[in-house]
Amino acid sequence: MEPFIALVAVTAILLLLGRAGVRPLRRWPVPLRGGLAAMFVMTGVSHFVGMREELISYVPPVLPEPALLITITGVLELAGAAGLLIRRTAPLAAGCLAALLVAMFPANLYAALAGIATDPLSQPVPRTLFQLVFVAAAVAVVIAERRAARATRPIPPLPAPARSGQLAGRRR
After folding, report:
1. 94-124: per-residue pLDDT in tens?
2. Does residue 12 have a pLDDT over 80?
3. How many of the other CB atoms lie within 10 Å of CB of 34?
4. Contact in structure between 90 and 83 (CB atoms under 8 Å)
5. Secondary structure class of 11 (helix, strand, coil)
6. Is 87 helix (H, G, I), strand (E, B) or coil?
7. pTM for this structure?
């Protein structure tokens, strides 16, 4: 629930600041990127502090080196959060984070079904709904930022029309 609250609260605050005149926050994808970044900083840090042992227990036994996997996913979440804050890298970071969310989802289901995650919001239905919101937010950033990049790309000039002097040298 905390990641969802971070996503919604930070996005809402940044949207309000954009409406209040903070120029860089006027385009809606920017506040959403900020909300996602806050969420992934929070979840990434939890891979190292506070919830590390619990997260290690979420890793299904068929996967090797649970502690290493938690370290890697934590680093990826933190790197993705940083990437979201840079406009040029935001679409790639958001796409990679969406893929990471999908890849990690089976571990969350395993934890719920094995009775490791007992929080009611960690159960399959609520967890799936939260995960869909997180993935949808990341995909929305990918789409919006790619469209914005295409719209701001300069259009190359058309070739200049041939002048009569240039055509004279080509006569048969």
Report:
1. 999 999 999 999 998 999 999 888 888 888 8
2. yes
3. 21
4. yes
5. helix
6. coil
7. 0.83
